[in-house]
Amino acid sequence: MELVSLLEQFTNQVTKLLVTEGAARFFERGQPLIVQMLEELKVPYHKYWDGLKWTGYPSLETLYFHYCLNLRKFDSSIGKMKVLTHLDIIRCTNLRTLPEEIGGLVNLKHLSIKKCSQMEKLPYSIGKLGSLSKLDISSSRITSLPNSIGNARHLSFLNLSGTPIVELPISIGELTQLEFLSLKYCRNLGELPESIGNLTLLQKLNLSRTNIVELPNSIKNLKQLKVMRIGFSPIRRLPASIEMLEKLEELYAKHCEQLEGELPIEIGKLLSLRILDISYTHISAVPMAINYLTRLQKLDLTHCDELQELPKLPSSLHCLHVHSASLRLVSNFSNLTNLVEMLLSNGFGQAPAQPSNPMQTFQLQWVGKLPKLEKLSWGLSYFSISLTELGCLPQLRELTLSGMDSFNSIVVGPQFSNLKNLSTLCLHSSPLREIQLNGLEHLRNLRVRECEFLERLLVISSSLRKLYKMEVLDCPKLLEIQFPNTMESLEELRVGYCDSLGGLCGLSKKLKVLRIYQCNGLRVAEGLEELELLGFLYLSRCGSLERLTDVSDSKIPNECTIEVWGCTKLSNYEGTYRGYKEMILVRTRMTFNEEDARADAEESVMGTNNYHSQNLPLTIGFLWSPEPDTELDST
């Protein structure tokens, strides 16, 4: 008990105490420690701590328990800690309940009981915590809140995320100071009480991944609500009363798969709205009233596949994502002069049937009139666009082109000579058979993906002096990739799922990372021995590759990491290039020894055969001499 005695000697000086697992045994429940000035006590990661009596801590303000597996209950004396303001209980997985005496913590402001997977209910006395401002019981097993919760009138933060709670008590409407309410992952919660509308100071409401089908009409009274999340829930419609949420800035309804039809026209009255995300829903129409949202900065309609047309949109937009397999009409968006990021697609090269009336589509020259555009992803099949138009976007940094159905081959580069900021180019899901890259002096990243018919990829100019990283994936008919001999900037190359690719040539000598996988037709990677800066080489499932490198004449660094898996003609290996060379040399010596042994054996056999061949005729002569007066006898 020396530690206890030591603490008692400094009872008027110790204000903070961290109890390690080794010291926990000094704090026994039957022997309370009196530390008059202790303000903060932390007990982290204790397997054996089971609590203690709390009569000796008159100044304690903060209690912290983390991962105390043996903690099953709190002593009732905890209610006597009148100055306690913070009680954090995290991952105490055997704690089932709190004593009713906890209601005596009249100054408690912060109560957190997170990830206590056996905690099934809160004491009724929770309502007596008149000073409580934050309550977090996320990821517990609590199925309901006591009605007394409404008496915690100063509560401003309530987190019930990840609990199996079935319903909220009507008294929750009495929490008139509440500003934050999260019910995320409360999958058993099917509705909200009408009293939710009494939370007139609520600013953030998270209903994501609940089982709520319909929002109550009283939600219109949440005049201070700024952020509402209802994503991944079965909500079927947005109520017309949503127009009353005059301060709503962010509305997230992503993956609400039951949400269908037209967005309510009343959404045009949310004049404070900055972000509207209704991606992955069955929304079929956006009302023209959306143009009234003069503060809207982000509109996400990704995979709204029943959406056929887009109305005029507010010029305040910074980010626009539209992806619909049914898209047939795109308005003139030349007014979107503040647009920084835009995605327009009707299927990434897998569009529906060509529109029967081409006049329903506008000309798309307006794309080149968006002066602030930095990121563009274009995948509108059957909507013609000129690459020259894209070359008029001075701020463009990232460009993704998908589809391009009207081309058989394409030369990308000369049209973009003015794009001094273009650093990333992605060619995706296109029926092109040949792609030539020429120019693009500032390009650093190149990605070519899912081009089913692509046969040739040619880098025909040395002007790609800054190309740093290149990926070619899922191009099953690709026969060749050609690089100019002067291309020295490429440091990372990734090639995968290109089964027809026969070889790689012209590899940059500055290559540091090379990944090749599922290229069953690849027979040789020319110039691999010259990669003196290579740091990582990965080869997998390249069944035709016969040789990695000539280890006797290779510049690959010994420290380079090598991984070879599933290449039929090569041995699996994981380690450094030094180890790989040693393995090859050992096998080569073994092969030579086997060949020498085989040659010696063959020579031995040949020697025996020669002996028999020299003596055999004489023996035969004696055996078959017919007459004594023959020529043989006379000699």
From TrEMBL:
Location of the Disease resistance R13L4/SHOC-2-like LRR domain: 177-256, 261-495
InterPro entries membership: Leu-rich_rpt_typical-subtyp, LRR_dom_sf, LRR_R13L4/SHOC2-like
Transmembrane annotation, as ranges: none
Gene3D superfamilies on file: Ribonuclease Inhibitor
Keywords: Leucine-rich repeat, Repeat
Coiled coil: none
UniProt-recorded name of the protein: Disease resistance R13L4/SHOC-2-like LRR domain-containing protein
Taxonomic source organism: Eucalyptus globulus
